[in-house]
Design goal:
- It is built from no helices and 21 strands.
- The protein is an all-beta fold.
- Helices cover 0% and strands 26% of the residues.
Length: 340
């Protein structure tokens, strides 16, 4: 015992029954450990433990509990639960001061969830062992934030950069969260995008494919069933990997009409199988025009080369009765006038 009433022990302090109660002052353990087989109640202003503290039941009625050892561990008995419960409306605070480290580091060694938050015994949020997040409130919806930054359960995703405008639906079909917005690739506006699908909300979709190297492009408009190139560039159908091209208005049936609205129309090959060919301008046929039926007629033409009837008769030239005979003769229905 010291002169001031202190008690100094050369070995451990062991209490086997009834517990130990310290009602005032400070409890300092500078070496070895405090071990209690029963309850250990510490009612002191400050408690500084520099070694081990072991008790079946520990109650701290103190404003400060300090572990000043080099390594500090709080360990329960085998398979026991560690519960930290503040009394009344107090909070449990974690205030680390070490730089470069997280405030809370959880190293899960078992197979259950790494972290679980619950309210009144109901699981609200979990971090699973594979890193997946489980939040029972946010089911079958899209996560989005409101103006206050609160994460809510919405039906579309209109957030900023990094958010996805798509969701996977059943049947293997990917659809946008908002089915009325336009779609752009390669740019933030229709003037700069390389691919665009616009007019969705109006029900008049137009698909545009633009090239950045030669200012060419292609437009497919569903509103007026139109295909056209951009910037008055040539439009080519087919190429070295294209097979035959069939144009069949009304499936070639009655009333079908193919209109070519051009001042000049060039055909590199023969035109066959045409029932009626109407031309409002001149027809230049460098390969010749063949009439193979008695009903084939030509209202007017200008001959700059040889007219070969192929042993057939040419009748009613100018006036009815002016004909070439089969033997090569010429019968005139009127006078022969030479105006040299």
């Amino acid at each position: 015992f010291s002169a001031t009433g202190g008690l100094t022990l050369a070995d451990n302090l062991t209490v086997t029954a009834g517990g130990v109660t310290i009602t005032s002052g400070a409890l300092a353990v500078n070496s070895d450990s405090i071990t209690s087989d029963g309850s250990l109640i510490i009612n002191a202003t400050t408690t500084d433990i520099q070694d081990a503290l072991t008790a079946d039941s520990l109650t701290l009625d103190t404003s400060s509990l300090t572990f000043s050892g080099v390594a500090t561990d709080i360990i329960t008995g085998a398979n026991e639960v560690l519960t930290v419960t503040p009394n009344g409306t107090g909070n449990v605070l974690i205030n680390p001061s070490a730089g470069g480290q997280a405030a809370l580091i959880v190293n899960k060694t078992g197979n259950n969830d790494i972290f679980t938050a619950s309210a009144s015994g109901v699981n609200r949020f979990s971090i699973q062992t594979d890193g997946k997040l489980l939040a029972s409130f946010y089911t079958t919806c899209t996560l989005k934030t409101d103006s206050n930054g609160l994460v809510t359960c919405g039906t579309d995703n209109t957030g900023g950069a990094g958010t996805s405008p798509f969701e996977q639906v059943s049947g293997g079909v990917i659809v946008p969260n908002n089915s009325t917005v336009d779609f752009l690739l390669g740019g933030q506006a229709t003037s700069s995008a390389r691919f665009g699908l616009t007019g969705i909300a109006a029900g008049t979709p137009i698909a545009t494919l633009s090239a950045s190297t030669n200012n060419n492009g292609l437009v497919l408009s569903a509103s007026d069933a139109r295909v056209q190139s951009l910037r008055n560039n040539a439009l080519t159908l087919g190429g070295d990997t294209t097979g035959n091209i069939s144009i069949s208005p009304l499936n070639g049936g009655a009333g079908s009409l193919l209109t070519v609205n051009a001042l000049t129309t060039n055909f590199g090959g023969a035109i066959t199988g045409v029932t009626t060919l109407t031309a409002s301008g001149a027809i230049a046929a460098n390969g010749g025009i063949t009439f193979d039926a008695a009903t084939d007629t030509l209202s007017a033409f200008t001959l700059s080369g040889t007219l070969d009837a192929n042993a057939n008769l040419i009748q009613n030239i100018g006036n009815a009765g002016t004909d070439f005979s089969a033997t090569g003769g010429l019968t005139l229905a009127d006078n022969l006038t030479v105006t040299a």
